[in-house]
Design brief:
By secondary structure, the chain is an alpha/beta fold. The protein contains nine helices and seven strands, in the order αββαβαβαβααβαβαα. It is globular, with a radius of gyration of 19 Å. GO terms for molecular function: ATP hydrolysis activity; nicotinamide-nucleotide adenylyltransferase activity.
Length: about 300
């Protein structure tokens, strides 16, 4: 569903100005030693986005994607996670969350990896993807219907979840000096990503525990189960996670405790990938696209002529 300007306290920026803003922001980022940076925070009232410091964050929900383009499935993952995070009492330090407000210690990050600085990304440039993320975030705020949620748009050069969690933590952007602790990070992922995370081939000898041990100390995975045949049914996917808790990875440096940091949630029956959206646009199948992307993202696809080739 598309949302009007009145659906949230945000103001619709000019697309050209947004692309220019994000181009300048990325140039600054790539010319710095930084490996992680927050570029802006939603909602914003000015013509140009700005970032705002975060305080009192107890759970940071991280939607890490190529956003090429952001889809309704991405939005549903974020909404579901925010609802869970703000109502759950399972935070490791015993914090309580109000079920009526996402703002009670919960914040959302849209994270884009931009590690190929010397290679022009296809088929949408990073500044344009960030523009779509900004519009996606404003549509998401409108659908949440509250005024407390804040969304950070951030970039990193880190390729893997465990590295991303580490640099977010080391940035100290979300740490509470008064309470002396950092927020629990909740990374949203599809089941296919989980298979890769627990694949020993991505780690050297002893590398899996060295990489994932610190990751699961500061983060958990909220996994949307796949509904296609490639990964089996939901029971097979649940069985895979149960196997993690029964020592399946012991021989390659795994830890049975990690299974307790993996939460499985049901996927939407009409789950959709960004590649499906790109294919539909390329084939000129405009009918049905509005079911797959929200209004702001659709505006970017049409206005910038994205994915036609």
């Amino acid at each position: 569903m598309a949302h009007s300007d009145s659906d949230s306290s945000t103001m619709r920026p000019n697309p050209k100005q947004l692309v220019d803003f994000f181009s300048r922001s990325l140039t600054s980022f790539h010319s710095s030693p930084d490996v992680f940076r927050i570029l802006c925070t939603l909602p914003h009232a000015g013509a140009e986005p700005v970032s705002r410091p975060a305080s009192g964050v107890r759970r940071l929900v991280v939607l890490d994607s190529s956003f090429n383009p952001p889809t309704r499935a991405h939005a549903e993952m974020a909404r579901s996670a925010l609802k869970w995070a703000s109502s759950s009492s399972s935070y490791s330090e015993g914090a309580s969350f109000s079920s009526s407000s996402h703002s009670d210690g919960t914040r959302l990050m849209l994270l884009l990896s931009v590690n190929n600085a010397d290679k022009a990304p296809k088929p949408a440039s990073f500044p344009v993807r960030l523009g779509m993320m900004e519009g996606f975030g404003r549509d998401l705020l409108g659908s949440l219907g509250d005024v407390g949620t804040e969304i950070d748009l951030a970039v990193t050069t880190m390729p893997y979840f465990h590295d991303k969690a580490r640099v977010i933590s080391e940035s100290w952007m979300y740490s509470s000096s008064s309470e002396g602790r950092e927020p629990e990070q909740v990374f949203l992922a599809g089941f296919d990503t989980v298979i890769r995370i627990f694949n020993p081939k991505y780690y050297g000898d002893g590398g899996m525990r060295a990489a994932l041990g610190p990751f699961f100390e500061r983060a958990r995975l909220r996994v949307t189960m796949r509904t296609d045949d490639e990964w089996g049914g939901e029971e097979e996917q649940r069985e895979y996670v149960r196997g993690l808790g029964e020592g399946r990875l012991d021989d390659v440096g795994g830890d049975v405790a990690w299974a307790g940091r993996v939460d499985l949630v049901e996927g939407r029956g009409d789950g959709v990938s960004s590649s499906k959206v790109r294919d539909m646009v390329k084939r000129g199948e405009k009918e049905g696209l509005e079911r797959l992307v929200d209004g702001e993202v659709m505006g970017w696809i049409e206005g910038e002529g994205l994915y036609r080739e």
